[in-house]
Amino acid sequence: FMSIESKKLKWSDLPEASELSQALEQEKYRERYLKTLKSTISTLVVVAAIAILTATLWLPVLQIYGNSMTPNLESGDMVVSVSAQKLRQGDVVAFYYNNKVLVKRVIATEGQWVDIDSQGTVSVDGQKLGEPYLADNEKDLGDTNIQLPYQVPEGKFFVMGDHRSASIDSRNTAIGSIGNEQIVGRLVLRVWPLNRIQWVK
């Protein structure tokens, strides 16, 4: 036969009230911690979803391809754009063209007259355009096949790349002036690479 040894509990073997209280507090803390953790994770998920939705609808982040905007924007740069109801001369904009997104600078708006001389100097409404965003010796007539001087049609924008010799833009009938319906947004901030974060000028 198997014998079972039994042992009577003494009062000294029982946990003290302070130990029970401490164990109870630890359990309550664990429950609060788990509840707080779940709440925090839920909040973070919601915030992330809202941030992604906001970025997609109102603040699209675009990556630059090609070199038509160098040296101000280079291939691989990532930039934030904002919705722009009203564009002004000098704004850098992204727009749809043949299922691609191109980036150029607004040179003139509807009704204005654009002229470019053989050296690539741009005039708008008879006034030479000051272009501090161009690199030295960057002025170039480029691939121009429109008849100059050129009047920007109603509801359109005349755009050019900053790298004039390499950019195909409104100077060429292949692209021409762009309309509001093509505009993705105005570029405001370069966010990548990190060592070149700055406002788009």
Q: What is the number of E strands?
A: 12
**Mean pLDDT metric:** 81
Percent of residues in helical segments? 10-25%
Low-confidence stretches: 1-6, 48-54
How much β-strand is present in the residues? 25-35%
- From the helix content, strand content and strand pairing, which structural class follows? alpha+beta
Outline:
elongated
Biggest pleated sheet: 8 strands, antiparallel
Radius of gyration over C-alpha positions, nearest whole angstrom: 32 Å
Order of helices and strands: HEEEEEEEEEEEE
Brief account:
It contains one helix and twelve strands, in the order αββββββββββββ.
Short key terms for the protein model shown above:
201 residues, alpha+beta, eight-stranded antiparallel beta sheet, 1 helix, elongated, disordered N terminus
Structural summary, described in words:
The chain is of the alpha+beta class and 201 residues long. It has one helix at 17-57, and strands spanning 61-63, 78-82, 92-97, 100-109, 113-116, 122-124, 127-128, 150-151, 156-160, 178-179, 183-192, 198-199. Residues 1-6 and 48-54 have low confidence and may be disordered. It has one helix and twelve strands, in the order H-E-E-E-E-E-E-E-E-E-E-E-E. The chain is elongated and about 95 Å long. Strand 6 and strand 7 (127-128) form a beta hairpin. Strands 1, 2, 3, 4, 9, 10, 11 and 12 form an eight-stranded antiparallel beta sheet that branches. Strands 7-6-5-8 form a four-stranded antiparallel beta sheet, with no helix packed on it.
